[in-house]
Amino acid sequence: MGYDIERFVGYVNEGLLCSICRDVLEDPLQAPCEHAFCTACIHGWLVHHSNCPEDRQMIDVSLLRPLYRYMKNDLNRLQLHCKNREYGCEMVCSLESIDRHERECEYSQIPCSNAGCTVQIERRNLDGHLAVCEYRSRECPNGCGYTILSAEDAQHNCVAELRTELELLRSEMICRVEEAKHEMESRLDSQRRHMVQKESILQNEIEELKSQMSRMMSDIRSLMAAERQHRQELEQAELEKREL
C-alpha cells in the first residue's frame, strides 16, 4: 500500500500515484510499459495475474525495475504531514525524510517497556507513564532486597521470599558439593590408576636391577676365584724357582 494522498501538501502528479492502490508510491517499481506501482501492490497483483493492471500488457516480476531517477527525485521532494498528525504532531517534511522523523516522533504511539503492560502511549508521555505504571518494578521497601512489581505488593511476603531463596541456595549448594565430590573422586581414581602404573613400572625396574646385581655378583665371584687360582699358580711358580 502507498502513502495516503490526503497526507500530502499541494498537488501530486498523476505519474507518482500507484496504478493499483491509487495512493502515492511507496517503495516503487516500474513495468516495461512505464506504469509505476508500490512494490507490495504489484507483487500482490502478480500472484493472481500476469499482466499490467493499467494496459493489460504481459509482465513478470523479473521485468520490474526501479523508478526513473527524475521521477524518484520528484517523489522524494513531495511534502507530507506526519502520520501522527491526529495526535498533535504538526511536522511537515519531505517524503525522503518522513520515515526518519516518524521513527523519532514524540507523538508516536509506543508500547510500555514494562513486562506485562499492554498500554500504548505517546513517546513524549512514556516517562510519566513509567512512573505510575502498575507493572513497574522496584526494590522491596522492607529491606529484603527483592525487586517486586507494584501489582504484586499485596502478595509480597519477605519471610516467605527469603525462605524460598534459602531453599534454592541450599539445593544449589548441595548440587555443587555433589559435583565437586564427583570431580574429586574422578581425579583421585585417575591419580590412583597413574600411581598403580608407576608402581608396576618401578617394580619391573627393581627386578631388572636385582637381576643385573645378581649377574654382577656372579661375575665378581668368578673374578675372585680366578684371582685366587692365579695367586696360587704364582706361589707354586715361586716355590719351584727357589728349589731350582
UniProtKB/TrEMBL annotation:
Domain RING-type residues, every copy: 18-56
The entry's keywords: Coiled coil, Ligase, Metal-binding, Zinc, Zinc-finger
Domain of life assignment: Eukaryota
Coiled-coil segments on the chain, per record: 192-243
Boundaries of every TRAF-type domain copy: 101-144
Matches recorded under Pfam families: zf-C3HC4_2, zf-TRAF
Positions annotated as zinc finger (TRAF-type): 101-144
GO biological process entries: regulation of canonical NF-kappaB signal transduction
UniProt GO molecular function: ligase activity; zinc ion binding
Keyword field contains Metal-binding: yes
Keyword presence, Lyase: no
PANTHER family reported in the protein's UniProt record: RECEPTOR-ASSOCIATED FACTOR, PUTATIVE-RELATED (PTHR10131:SF157), TNF RECEPTOR ASSOCIATED FACTOR (PTHR10131)
Stated name of the protein: RNF41 ligase
Organism: Anhinga anhinga
